[in-house]
Amino acid sequence: MVAPIPKGLLIHTVTYQAKQTSEWGDSADPITIEHVRVEPKNTLNRSGTGSTITSDTLLFWDSVHSTPCAFVEDSEVTFNGRQMIVVSVQEFYDASKLHHKEVRLA
Questions:
Q1: Looking at the DSSP assignment, which residues form a beta bridge with residue 84?
Q2: Cβ contacts of residue 77 below 8 Å, gap of 6+?
Q3: What are the tens digits of pLDDT across the range 60-99?
């Protein structure tokens, strides 16, 4: 068994809003997820038509210390007042169970 991500590294709190799931516009209430780590990465891209900033932020969620959450692509995560969209979710396992998730945000 692999040790969990040290809680001292999981210093951030985010708000997660699940993707709208019904045609009636119903969606779950936002939840606060504690004990995660967010590594922001922004890149300035310049072209002949102007400049754009591309976000490629990574959120680390630990199966032991983080608030339980089933991340879904196209859902919204708010960190430090900035709203981002879940682009992908990767699950990493130790020998027998889920160890952590890496959630790519844009």
A1: 77
A2: 14, 15, 16, 17, 59, 83, 84, 85, 86, 103, 105
A3: 999 999 999 999 999 999 999 999 999 999 999 999 999 9
